[in-house]
């Protein structure tokens, strides 16, 4: 690390990043925080009056006529759907990605590069186009339904599009590489002799996987899960296209507040909520990996 | 030690590839390892010793032949159901588990109770003198300590046979000597059959009850260290184990006429024809009435002894090893003509080349 040792003035190198962070992240974030405590303007924007109304409305709603307070069930449904779909996406990418990463890591080195290259190819295509491709596959007259009908498995097309399942399929497809790459990195470092050592010490295949492989590649699993879970939670394009208008996720709901809903403070409060959820997940990640570090000292 | 067989290989063979490209890693090896003995598989890298070990462990299945454990055919039994444990060359300690948990692993997999496991782990930590390291992670230990954890982990389930795959090769010389004694002690104390793989002939000679010398997938000779060292069956074994001088000659009537023209008496040698003689460097004396004439070309001081490089009359190079006197000077000058005599019984007649 020659650069970090380049003298007392090494910190000067971080100035461009610092400027970017201040103006690109900290500044806008501050604006969002401030907006979440203001009143919504009539058509858009904000009125500079302090109020916690937006935060109240994240969780509760007040009846227009008698003013009774009840929980904002519609919002909670969206939170719950976002959380559920994000967890399921993470799970699905793990279940598909783990064998995939294992396969690549056990290939001869020259072929490994080719497989990794294939994994990264989807990144070259615009997210919108990839999502429309999935739509093409799962829609009623799409590839999947036509194929299943041709096979005789079903008589009428399955309604997959515009359901949570469609969003799940789309997100799993889009985020799969983000799971595979850190998993591959972890499995690549894994000493396969340990598997033999496990078998040698009377462990079955399942126990070798659970007691040896999984704990040792855990940093990769955690990193992949974070990389999939965080963008899933804030996903916008995929649920918008594959979920239709009804099956909104948090990202779509936030967009709605700044657009048609014309309630910027509520949108800002929701954004902050999303940030809190993500930060909680990241904290869990830091804790999980620091435990791992103590193991590896 | 009994005559009962712990491990048997019956015509065991392991091939890789097929057709023209077939590599015979192990070629028709039959071998019996006795219960309670320290048996060493010795040979250069690629001789098949590790392959044979892996067949016994169950990590690979023989292409042909059978492997028996205590008389039972285990050829098709997976490694996790064989009462055999391995000490790996790289130790293969579980990095995420503490020393104690590493040692406990096999016992837990065998379904022993928590109390039993705890007691046995204590016992093992004591045996390898690591009681104070119980809670450390393997990465916090020195190479020698990791080695001892690997040993304790493999010994804990009290296997019928312990397999050791060049376990000392990663250690420095001093530690290696220490561990050799330690291994021997552990083997004597536990009474478990040890099958030890090494390419280090000295290691093999000092530790083993019996040695199997291998080359190109085939077993060359099996016997005790003295038997192998003093009575090698062929040139390979003689050359691989210790240093040896080879002399060509014609055998007739109990005497061998050397290529240099001199005649050497070889008691007990029957038959006639071209033979190769093997004489160990430390079994050659310099005496005025010796039958062989030689010219000293170089002396090399090794501390305990001094190696004398000599030329015979026909140009054959041989080495004689003399014990260094207290002064360190053997009193010979380069270019001097000397007479050599092998110690009685030191000359081995090898067949073929």
UniProtKB/TrEMBL annotation, chain A:
Gene3D superfamilies hit by this protein: MetI-like
CDD domains in alphabetical order: TM_PBP2
Claim: Membrane is one of the keywords in the record: yes
Main location: membrane
GO terms for biological process, alphabetical: transmembrane transport
Ranges for domain ABC transmembrane type-1: 79-285
Signal peptide: none
Transmembrane region(s): 12-38, 85-107, 113-135, 142-162, 168-187, 208-230, 266-286
Domain of life, source organism: Bacteria
Keywords of this entry: Cell membrane, Membrane, Transmembrane, Transmembrane helix, Transport
Record-linked InterPro entries: MetI-like, MetI-like_sf
Locations listed in the record: Cell membrane
Membrane topology, as annotated: Multi-pass membrane protein
GO cellular component: plasma membrane
Family of this protein: Belongs to the binding-protein-dependent transport system permease family. CysTW subfamily.
Name by which UniProt lists this protein: ABC putrescine transporter, inner membrane subunit
Native species: Pseudooceanicola batsensis (strain ATCC BAA-863 / DSM 15984 / KCTC 12145 / HTCC2597)
From TrEMBL, chain B:
Assigned keywords, A-Z: ATP-binding, Cell membrane, Membrane, Nucleotide-binding, Translocase, Transport
Origin superkingdom: Bacteria
Catalytic activity: ATP + H2O + polyamine-[polyamine-binding protein]Side 1 = ADP + phosphate + polyamineSide 2 + [polyamine-binding protein]Side 1
The gene coding this protein: potA
Keyword Methyltransferase attached: no
Protein name: Spermidine/putrescine import ATP-binding protein PotA
Gene Ontology molecular function, alphabetical: ABC-type polyamine transporter activity; ATP binding; ATP hydrolysis activity
Alphabetical list of InterPro entries matching this protein: AAA+_ATPase (IPR003593), ABC_SmlMolc_Importer (IPR050093), ABC_transporter-like_ATP-bd (IPR003439), ABC_transporter-like_CS (IPR017871), Mo/tungstate-bd_C_term_dom (IPR008995), P-loop_NTPase (IPR027417), PotA-like (IPR005893), Transp-assoc_OB_typ2 (IPR013611)
Keyword Cell membrane attributed: yes
